[in-house]
Amino acid sequence: MVRTPDHNAGEPSSPDDGEEFTALFADMRGSTGIVEFVERHHGLGAAAELFQVFLSECVRLVDDIDGAEVHLRGDGVLILFSGTDRVQDAVEYTRRLRRMVDDPPDELVRHLTCGCTTCPVCGEETSLSLEVRCGIDAGRVSRFKVQTLRDTVEELVGSCISVAAKLSGALGEAHRVGMSRRAWRRLHEETGADARLAREWTPSAGRIGRRRRRFFAS
Q1: Which of 2, 9, 147, 206 could form a disulfide with 70 if both were Cys (CB 3.0 to 4.6 A apart)?
Q2: What is the pTM assigned to this prediction?
């Protein structure tokens, strides 16, 4: 876990009560196909380098945001912004992530191609593209510890974490962000009347978990 200083933090809440956060989940779309392609053409080390660079860039983008903590989740990241008025920070992070993907470092994309139009190894057309999706929700998060074979690890539970991850997965198109209605209401409380929000975010709906939910997409 990576945690940035929270210069506005007060006394921490009881672990049993949980703390208020805005949860953002971001992941690489089509990561299974990407790792198979890169491993096949450039080797397992190249696949490891790609994901190392991607996750490192995701962490770097949150460096200067107070009170944020980053938890790595496979091919994605869970970012928690502490407090009840942090949806703006989550939205700003998605903008930074999009700029990074639009102009990625060479180490992140150099293995997404091979030197031919049609791959002679697997017959698939190349090349691949780097695509991301994000989900945002807000709510309480509680921490608990689990003893593993080697050490004790901290885990997190909260519906906002689950919903943020499900929203990310519900977006069929790349480079999109899904935001729960709960987070949308908080964003309006934080920003007041902002015509840009209405232009950027549109009502949508999809199956989140076991039921169909309405949310906002950008």
Answers
A1: 2
A2: 0.82
